[in-house]
């Protein structure tokens, strides 16, 4: 069957594009859950106590590479509606980025765990909350950069901090996503957040467009 025949078979209209997007989201969402499952299962079973915060942070370690792979797969989704292989893109992104992402993800989790313990015991509540939010926004930028570009870890960290100020719209969008994610966990559970993770990845990819465009223009040769 020729490429033209294949295109006609699958269609090129709005319905075909919606079906392609839904297929991609479902596949990426399932793979994201599977790769993050080792920590998620334990995390959901943990009591919400200050003593479990370090363990909760450790359980979240697999989520970093999983989110990175999801960002990669969603970003490089083919415009060819007959090329429905999001699983291949996800796995390629996971292999390429796992080491680089963990270099930034693990220290960030450790820092958030320290802040979380202080917050749980009511120490410097306002300052700790602000620091935790800033760290989360920095990590959101770093995750996008590490997932889509090939910089060294320290350069990724510097760019993530730089764009917190350089692109306020991206930072504001990230803040909204962080508040929404925290709300889902507080009102329901980590499992609900995990089920919605692919949607958060897509939203993060969209809000980060100005940052990605400037990186491609100024820092990528």
Question: Overview of this structure, please?
Answer:
This protein is mainly α and 221 residues long. It has one domain (3-218). Helices cover 81% and strands 0% of the residues. It contains eleven helices and no strands. The chain has helices at 3-10, 14-45, 53-59, 63-75, 86-120, 125-148, 153-166, 168-187, 190-195, 197-207, 209-218. The longest helix has 35 residues, at 86-120. It is globular, with a radius of gyration of 18 Å. Residues 1-10 have low confidence and may be disordered.
Give the biggest sheet: none
Strand share of the residues? under 5%
Low-pLDDT ranges: 1-10
| Ends distance | 39 Å
- Count of folded domains: 1
Q: What are the secondary-structure elements, in order, as H or E?
A: HHHHHHHHHHH
From the spread of the alpha carbons, the general shape counts as globular
Mean pLDDT over all positions = 90
Number of helices: 11
C-alpha-based Rg, rounded: 18 Å
User: Which structural class best describes the helix and strand composition?
Assistant: mainly alpha
In helices, the fraction of residues equals over 70%
Number of strands: 0
């Amino acid at each position: 069957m020729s490429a033209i025949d294949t295109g006609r078979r699958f269609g090129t209209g709005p319905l075909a594009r919606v079906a392609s997007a839904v297929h991609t989201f479902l596949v990426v969402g399932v793979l994201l859950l599977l790769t993050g499952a080792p920590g998620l299962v334990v995390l959901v079973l943990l009591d919400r106590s200050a003593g479990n915060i370090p363990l909760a942070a450790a359980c979240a370690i697999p989520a970093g590479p999983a989110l990175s792979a999801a960002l990669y797969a969603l970003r490089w989704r083919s415009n060819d509606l007959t090329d429905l292989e999001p699983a291949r893109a996800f796995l390629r992104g996971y292999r390429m980025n796992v080491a680089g992402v963990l270099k930034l993800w693990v220290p960030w989790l450790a820092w958030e765990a320290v802040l979380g313990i202080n917050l749980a015991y009511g120490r410097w509540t306002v300052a700790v909350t602000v620091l935790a939010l800033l760290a989360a926004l920095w990590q959101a930028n770093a995750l996008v950069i590490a997932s889509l570009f090939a910089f060294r870890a320290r350069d990724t960290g510097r760019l993530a901090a730089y764009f917190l100020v350089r692109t306020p719209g991206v930072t504001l969008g990230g803040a909204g996503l962080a508040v929404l994610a925290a709300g889902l966990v507080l009102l329901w559970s980590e499992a609900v957040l995990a089920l919605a993770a692919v949607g958060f990845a897509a939203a993060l990819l969209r809000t980060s467009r100005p940052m990605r465009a400037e990186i491609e223009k100024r820092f990528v040769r």
